[in-house]
Amino acid sequence: MHNRYDAGDFLKISLPLATSVVLLTTSVLEFPEGYRAAGAEQPALDSLRWALQYLVDCHIEPYAYVALIGDVDRDHGYWGPPEAQQVERPVEAVRRGAPAADLLGAAAATLAAGSELFATRDAPFSSHLLATAIHLYDCPGVKKTYATTRHADKLMLAAAWLLRVTGEANYGEAALAHWRAEGPSVYVGWDSLYAPAVNVLLQLSSRGTPVPGAEEYDNWWHQTFWPVWDKADGNWSVVRTPKGLVYPSWSQWGNLRYSGNVAFAMAVRAAYSRDPDEARRCLAWSRGQLDYALGSAGRSFVVGIGRDAPCRPHHRAASVPSRQAQGWAFLHDPGPNPHCLTGALVGGPPSGDDSYVDDRNNYQCNEVAVDYNAGYTGALAGVLALMARLPAR
């Protein structure tokens, strides 16, 4: 089962992978011209197909789904390239009755979105993705309440995508039930996918599809989500640093991920909003956070791009000079990584003063991860597309 490692280690974790892939799949569907402008559409399709195939392959039995490949302790006890890692890599799967609504919901959402992306490109593959998505969503017990941080958001996103792909009205009712089950969160990440779900549903509504709860979703966007992130005055703990990063103050790890994910949500909103002024505001918000990541604060937080870009991301394979080299000395080496992870977004400033140290040992600030780049990449494609779509004032 070949696919992307989660971050700077060599674990394969299905939940953050699925949520990353659904954001990236959405971005290719909504902003294909952004990818074309960057010469990246076909590479994106190739990469997403690989990831979607992996997520399908994780469905190893009718009621068993792979959640993790690798042992956390063993993996974190090794510093070197993946080719030289000689350890047992156990496979952990969730089975019937396990509290896995979050994982199965995220996987179902991702595969449903993928089925639309490949509908005209590879019909058999698309049909297989959709059939698997429906099965995962309908797994016995998946809609029960579990003692996880949050799961209804993933089920809501799955129902939203299944409504979009199949047109079956019962998915719209299900999405509304999931929305009301826990109370929505304004954060956007692998543990909170309400805003992406709302975007899918409101975009359908804007196209004339009957969507139960559409007015409720729209009110939440205007009265809660937008003002929380636009004002950044401490409501929901969302604040703005002196140089412009908007992030939740409770977080000290991977803060650029949150701003990038919200930037993508804002770009999607701008794409279907019928209010040109709102669309421009959302575009401006997205661009402001991308500008911060790319250097408006005085330095870039994207490896290999812009002024004073990070040289020491917390990434095992990038930090060792060859396939034979391994050992903790490479973690502590003060020099730059011998291999440049061009385009990788690091975690960024850990607190509200914009401070950041390019230190490989500091994984809170300097780790890179699949989910860090997902929303950021989608926002880049969105801003490129929207700058051409939206009429000049």
TrEMBL record:
Keyword Nucleus in annotation: no
EC number: 3.2.1.4
Active site: D358, E367
Class of this enzyme: hydrolase
Keywords for this protein: Carbohydrate metabolism, Cellulose degradation, Glycosidase, Hydrolase, Polysaccharide degradation
The organism's place on the tree of life at top rank: Eukaryota
Keyword Lipid biosynthesis in annotation: no
Catalysed conversion reaction: Endohydrolysis of (1->4)-beta-D-glucosidic linkages in cellulose, lichenin and cereal beta-D-glucans
Residue intervals of the Glycoside hydrolase family domain: 5-380
Pfam families, A to Z: Glyco_hydro_9
GO terms, biological process: cellulose catabolic process
Gene Ontology MF terms in the entry: cellulase activity
Protein family: Belongs to the glycosyl hydrolase 9 (cellulase E) family.
Name under which the protein is recorded: Endoglucanase
Taxonomic lineage from the root: Eukaryota, Viridiplantae, Chlorophyta, core chlorophytes, Trebouxiophyceae
